[in-house]
Records
---
Amino acid sequence: TDFSRFQHKYTAGANWYPMQRLSVGAQYYRKSRSNDFDHVSDSIDNTGLNRYPAYLNRYNFDLDDVNLRVTVRPHSSLTMVSRFDYQQSDIRLRADGLSSLDAAEQNAYIISQSVTWSPWSRVYLQGNFNYVLDDTTTPVSQDPALSPWVQDARNDYWNTSAIIGYLIDARTEVEAQYQ
């Protein structure tokens, strides 16, 4: 199988600094990825029910993200960042012998919080928390005849991390992270 991939990302955003220790940002980005598969040879007869491994010819993924961010610096050694993202993803497939189809749509609401404290000039500690409300819808889950058996996917989750870092010099730092 020959495989080619084309990926690109476009970003536009703006920042506003209403006060010395407060900034607000808004951003939009679009990320697209196209994967093409050229199956030079396939040892499986793909005319029956078993159409793998050379079944997919193209896989396209488009992601649109809009996010808002607020950064507060109540003290010179303390920074807090709150962020909200809304993401919408569209996934399209083209399979062997079939036309292109919309395979899934994914929507996510992401709430993030980060707190960074630098007690000394070369040391920093950071705590992060993310909460994600994520759902995936497919054409099959929207079909009334099939929806009792195929449901939309709810992929809600949260994660946290803690980081400690030490700046050795202007070009070198050591960091330990726990997730």
Note: Residues 45 and 98 are 16 Å apart (CA to CA).
---
Amino acid sequence: MSIDAVATRDDLLTALGDAAGRFGSVEVVDTLDSTNTELLRRGAEQPDRSLLVALEQSAGRGRQGREWQMPVGGQLALSLAVSSQRPLSDWQGLPLGVGVAVADALHRLGPLDLRLKWPNDLLLGDAKLGGILLESRLPPAASRETGLLLVIGIGINRELPAATSLDQPVADLAGVLGERTPSLAQLAAAVGEAVLEAVDRHALEGLAAAVPRFQQLDALRGRDIRIHDANGGQHDGVALGVADDGSLRVRVDGVEQQLLSADVSVRVN
């Protein structure tokens, strides 16, 4: 680990203060393929609530296997590993709760027009600021010693190079906050604490704790959207908001439907 990663970890621990003790481990590395992939590889061998930050990712990814490119510096790539003895169904909708917690943490940094795009995108206006990726690994059927492993990954654009080009509009914090833009360590501390708080709140209260706030931040409600299903089909509809179970309510051809995030992706028309 180079001095850059060492210094960032020291700064991260300073920014976390007493909250550092809530994590099983806090690690910063120079480069790897993906923070989510690395924590999934480590599995049950790592401490519960391990926090991992990478200064560079070579194979970051989003929902449904989409590639998430991260230039050297300028973006936060962070993942948290959580062990649970509860079934995966108990964690349904957790990305919505994480999105709410992270958005509220970012709002405290300054005047940001932050919105949440179902199920897992952070937007500044209509431009993508970041995303959330929840992945899980079930224990072997014969094992009673290890439980479910949840890995929650967050990517946030802190300060992108001017030439950055993606398949959709993107935004970064520096473009709005200017000199008030937090350092990578300060941003990681704020986001890491927010993710941990979202996990704890979901464990106690379930998705119901997050839905009202998500509805306030909903970037899709009332808008015309295009729905892409897993079979390559497309449908146009109107987003009606988020249901209590975290599904997206839409009106298609005059009929209300509820969509699951595992089955579809949506874009604003």
Note: The chain has a mean pLDDT of 90.
